[in-house]
Amino acid sequence: MKKIDKFIGVIAGSFDPFSLGHLDIVQRSACLVDTLFIAIGKNSSKQAKFSIETRKSMVEQCTLQMDNVGVHVFDCALTDYLQSVHANVLIRGIRSCVDFEYEKTVSAVLKQQLPNLECIYLLAKPSLQHISSSVINELIANNANLKGYLPYEIIQYTGPIRV
User: Fold this and answer.
1) Backbone phi, then psi, for 22, in 5-degree steps?
2) Which of 75, 115, 133, 137 is most exposed by smallest CB count within 10 Å?
3) What class is the 8-129 domain?
4) Whole-model pTM?
């Protein structure tokens, strides 16, 4: 196995919206790799609440202070995107055993297509495991308090600011 000189990591997702759970995984991942790209893609199985441009802006605002983090939008197969940025590490957050089973399948497919890619899984902190886009979007729809779910920078995008 070839020794890796520079770790280029990617965290891919729809980030609709970018939550405190996402931010935690990004902060922890930025310490593990030389360069980290947050890759925002379209999820064909979901109707997006926020435009892809708005989601990119959200993530950029939350990662301004992270020198080794870049934010990209991609509109191709994840494998093509990973190759385009020369990524050798894909980082995924896991909240539950359901997430793990899904990610295990995704990892097998990616490793078959990109044998040199390493997949790293970070367990969500127990205090953040309940956060999902579905829960957040339900809170938004009901004009509920979003503190503890979204970074403050993101709350402004959800309508009247409630913290």
Assistant:
1) -60, -45
2) 115
3) alpha beta
4) 0.90
